[in-house]
Specification:
By secondary structure, the protein is mainly alpha-helical. It has a domain of 43 residues. Helices cover 63% and strands 0% of the residues. It is built from three helices and no strands.
């Protein structure tokens, strides 16, 4: 019997990156990246963690943080 995970639904139906003009894209993008890293936990391959952490570094550089 397949397990249902709330995180799958969030990932598939999230509108966090569909931002209105007055919403901070930096914070939303950083939150989504952190969400993926935290929800996957130890199941996330180290290669994928490196990719996501690099994306967070690039985001910080883009926004001067």
């Amino acid at each position: 019997m397949p397990r249902n995970y709330w995180s799958k639904a969030v990932t598939e139906h999230s509108n966090a990156l569909d931002l209105e003009a007055d919403v901070s894209p930096y914070r939303s993008a950083m939150s989504m990246l952190t969400f993926y890293i935290n929800r996957a936990g130890t199941h996330l391959p180290k290669k994928q963690i490196k990719v996501l952490e690099a994306a967070k570094d690039a985001l910080r550089a883009e926004y001067g943080r």
